[in-house]
Amino acid sequence: MAVAPAIPPGPGGRAKFPQEDYLRLLDASESGDPDAVQRASAALARAVESAAADIRDKYLAPPHTTDFGILFLPTEGLYAEVARTPELLDRLQQRYRVSVAGPTTLAAFLNSLQRPSSSTASSGARTRCPWNLTRTRNSGHHSQTRSYTT
Description:
Elements: E1 12-14, H1 20-31, H2 34-59, E2 69-72, H3 76-83, H4 86-96, E3 98-101, H5 106-114, H6 129-139
């Protein structure tokens, strides 16, 4: 007899994110030390990837959950720093199936999941809708005619 994992349905997410690496990056930027900025930026990217791996490993169990998770970054500055690195966002989505959200984007992201056209509960194919939206943003093409289904 198969037993489903004790994971609630819906997108997995995490709201705890240590900000130490981001604060070190801010300090390095203020000091004007480019080597310290590079080290702090790399440490922040590692911390974000580690948090994404935790979300994937702890909260994602398709078909019992969605096949994607959300990493909530609690400040706009931290969110902006992560979001300004398209390569990092791509790695989070492709390798870990995790998208980032900040204070102003979380509500819109969650609201988009409630729309019937992107309902995560009704179709496995539809759970990939956020990835297609992000691919459109990252590709630099903002065409209204692009298909958002896989």
